[in-house]
Amino acid sequence: MSTLSVPPVLTSPRQDAMDLYRAFKGFGCDTATVVNILAHRDASQRALIQQEYRAMYSDDLSTRLSSELSGNLKKAALLWMHDPPGRDAIIVREALSGESIDLQAATEVICSRTPSQIQVFKQAYYVKFGIHLEHDINLQASGDHQKLLLSYVSTPRYEGPEVDHGMVEKDAKDLYKAGEKKLGTDEKTFIRIFSARSSAHLAAISNFYHRMYGNSLMKAVKSETSGLLEFALLTIIRCAENPAKYFAKVLHKAMKGLGTEDTTLVRVVVSRTEMDMQHIKAQYEKKHKKSLGDAIQSETSGHYRSFLLSLVGHKH
Hints:
By secondary structure, this protein is mostly helical. The protein has helices at about 15-25, 30-40, 45-55, 60-70, 70-80, 85-95, 105-110, 115-130, 135-140, 145-155, 165-180, 185-195, 200-215, 215-225, 225-240, 245-255, 260-270, 275-290, 290-300, 300-310. It is elongated and about 70 Å long.
């Protein structure tokens, strides 16, 4: 459920390219026009605008945006110019090989995507960077966290709603035996089950576990694991149960307290707008009794604020 609003009567990609070119010309950039065009075009329209821009002006639109915009707006707009798999590839590549390595960001993207989304973004990763995603995971992650990520990106998983209740029961018991029941933790069992089971299956395990042992599977993960492995396992189980609730929580955390984690805010808003932002907004409001748009409005400013509010479909 996307929040992207595209005008009912669209100008042609050629006209958009011309309007953008005019916005860049002269002294200072007409940023309002740039935001108004780009924040209201879907992935295929943005790709056509980029093609027209290159054909007409022998220039790359993203390169031009990079030189005309600055700060958080520049980050958000450049990321927005890609389709969802390309965007995921860029976020993860930057997190695994940028100036500052951010294993948590890479883990969040990988562990919150469906198997088919992972397959497509792995292809985009290789096409864009000439290197396999697994190579970079091997390079930057370590220990059980590395094992989980490698298994998660390479194990084919069923995506349907059906579950085998006998298998659910067995997995729940195996997890209990591997964690709460013994001294020390058998991480291999957690990695095997969390990386190979469908979302519906994991949600069913979580239900059964709670009924059977009176403790939530999330609490078991928190008490039995730590660090990035714990973060990865929690992301997988939370997104298996309710991805919109998970991302509403991430956005709230990015905006609460002193200062805003703009990198997180940009990553989540830009990467979920064309996917499930309507559901995320509903979960955010349900939990915090305040709209996501209002929260963004109070935590951001200028054209950056306008851009994000347009993406989440908030009137401003």
